[in-house]
Amino acid sequence: MAGRDIESEQFQGSGPPGSPQPVSVIGDLRAASQLPDEPKGALRALEKGFLYLDRLIERAVPDTLNPLQHTGAIAVVTFLVAAVTGIVVLIWYRPSVNLAYESVEAMSSSPLTAGLVRSLHRYSSDACVFFGTIHAIRFFLERRFGGARWLAWVTGMLMVGILWFIGWTGYWLVWDVRAQMVAMGTAKVIDVLPIFVDPLERSFLTDEGVNSLLFFVVFFFHMLVPLAMGVVMWLHITRLSRPRFLTNKPMTWWVMGTLLLLCVAYPATSSAPAAMAALPRDLTIDWFYLLPLALTDRMSGGAVWGLALFGGIFLFSIPWWLAGKRPEPASVAGSRCNECRKCYTDCPYGAIEMVARTEGNMKYATQALVLPSKCVSCGVCAGSCDTAGIGLDAFSSIEQRRRVESWLAEAKAEDENTNIAFTCAESAGAGLTVDPETGRCKELPDFRVLQIPCIGWVHPLMIERAVRHGAGGVLLAACGPGECLYREGSQWMRERLEGEREPRLRTEKIEGHELRFVELDRTRTADLIREARSMSGGGETGLRDTAPSSPAMAVAAAVFLAVISAGATGAVSDLSYIAPYVEGSELVVSFKHPGAVAEKCRELSEEEIAARPVHMRKATDCERKRSTVRLRVGVDGNEILRKDFPPTGLWGDGSSVAVERIPLPTGQHAVSIEIGDTGDPDEWSFNESRSLEFTSDAKRVVIFDRVSGFSWH
User: What is the pTM of this model?
Assistant: First the structure.
């Protein structure tokens, strides 16, 4: 095997076995900048909550069926289900403001075909948000967003925004009361921007005023934006080697079973059909997607924009202000690289390339090259390299090997029977009290402990040499199953120990000595201590079995988890929403009307005339502009509103536009509307009066235009 033959030159050290070796004192692991700063307070406490929940689930089901270990892949699968069912549902759906609601309601009459597809479309979309949010929260608590991982975090936040937009427009297309609220909330926010000449809000004052073309534009975006989601999703995983993009077969069956269970038990329904004059009161909404209604119903459009921008800046900038100091990337010693490609193959983040050799033994055509922009400083490459040709400068394999050997030489000189423990800094070993200089541990008096960035950092030769230099046994403590901070470190170590991956452990070299590999999260320090003490007392050797006690228990637990997940998804997707209560009713008055054109002239002086070009030398200068349009509203003989609306347009030559909402008590009221469009403030060119009945569940709308006059709704 390449690299093993030069162990004595590159990996062995200068003295005979058992002799003390020089030690490079580098301080503890975090001081060496090979791990992010230790999370404090609430972040660590909340992370432990996930770990405790993992432990509870893993007592009953294997890792392959623990949904908390597959949140990202589940989110992808549910998104694909939503995309496919969205295409299929077009068989029955009609993208028209006049036919949309009826076509959606007709699906419910076929619960085993159209109704089932519709429910799958809705609940898979909800499940995508549910598991995607858990995925983001967990990675945030584990601080997997700093350094080279910034791209994954930023694209993840971008996917959340895109996913919400898809769902928001999707609910618009149902055209029920929820869709009405979505449309009005959207109009309030968009009207703040200088996009449309007419406020979008005017399109949603009456049922007749809803623009069918606008409805089709929303449908077009709902169908097109998922393509952008695919691009961002690819960027999200582009820096990962062997990304787990989809769930495994057992988990896929579990996901589909959970969705079908929810669809059958609680089919998706619509609210009442949209009625623009209605005042929505108590109803249920899908809080996964319609949470912003709580803002658009209670805040101005500008305030919503401000909150969204502030929140976006806060979330997207987390990798730069919360991640702390970025660890130094791995480096390559070209003189030791023998182009074995193991580091290139094992790197979890694709941060290593094989390039043309520039130094060292030129009989090898290529050598490894670390890409700093992708390296997360996990040290897995060090555990792959037989010649110590790659690794972390601040946590050198050679220096740490010498440190371990000096500990063993010291123990031998003092006639101590000492074991060696390599503990991942994110595993149960994080709870141990370790002196980084001597390796002595308060909780494990029979061990010398070396805390490392990742269990994948440990090369099998380091285990063999620890035994050769007098270690009674070696304990390897990794993160909990499926929880490796650096993705594949625990997996590679397990395969190396079992002889399934190079570099493999040569078991004949440690024959007669105990080796234990345990996967324990940071909440299980007590279990690690018991495991270590059992080694000192001659306990059972080998890998620990974490499988469920019986297949029946695993099946029962999987069903239970499906019921819990389905219940949580279904409940949040149909929770009560209380719209802001308005005492009484409301009168809405709107118009789009051009003011009269007025011309104002003045005599020019001789100096002003002379300053102008010859062909523009007129004696008078006339300015033409439109008059401000005035609105006066009277109720029961009392003037309750008088307001001026200047002309729109860059040059003030457009029509004046008004949308005024006036709260009124319920009951019968005499309403008069007057509009003046001339320069005379006392002239009212258009007026009309009516007696209207105002109720608490509907508003009255008056719309004026020059052609049709007043229309009362």
Answer: 0.86
